Amino acid sequence: MGLHFLGPTRIGLLMREGRLPIPRPVGVWGAYVMGLAFAFGWTPCIGPILAAILSMAAAEATVAKGAAMLAVYSAGLGIPFLAAAFMVEQFSSLSARMKRHLASVERAMGMLMIIAGIGFLTGSVSAISIWLLETFPALQNFG
To answer: Could you report the per-residue pLDDT of 78-113, keeping only the tens digit for each?
Structure first.
């Protein structure tokens, strides 16, 4: 995947794009269908994390602690969407400015993927994790 992002080997399947012609204006029902499509696309990403959060919340000593954990998760998921909705004009201008740098960002992400892959293959990630925990014991309290 890192080589794909770097550019020397492009995977044709990943370069495909599919769009449905949607007449404008879409209205309330169009927004509903768009939300369904978005939820369908995000379910594989959010499902396992939500399941883990629900399991942890169920194991809490009190209902209030479990509810607080779910509330923090929901806020972390929802606040960026609300901020994006309120700042859509600023985001659009930022997106337009970032477009010219997209190739550089893609190459940098490709390099990071290759470095991470090498780290996992060689066991360096585990060694770095152990070093971090020994150097900064407070990190053991996260998660």
So the answer is: 898 888 888 888 888 888 888 889 889 989 999 999
d(CA 120, CA 38): 31
Taking every pair of C-alpha atoms in the chain, what is the biggest distance, in angstroms?
58
Owning domain of residue 40:
26-100
Residue 19 backbone dihedrals phi, psi, to 5 degrees: -135, 150
Q: Are residues 129 and 87 in the same domain?
A: no
Phi then psi dihedrals of residue 9, to 5 deg: -125, 110
Report field, pTM of the whole predicted structure over 0.70 = no
**Residue of 80, 85, 77, 18 lying closest to 47 (CA atoms):** 77
Q: Is 1 helix (H, G, I), strand (E, B) or coil?
A: coil
CA distances from residue 18 to 9, 15, 21, 31 in whole angstroms, order as listed: 22, 10, 10, 19
Kindly state whether residues 96 and 106 are assigned to the same domain. Answer: no
pLDDT band, very low/low/confident/very high, at 16 (cuts 50, 70, 90): confident
53 vs 66: CA distance, rounded Å? 9
- Residue 2, in any domain of the structure: no
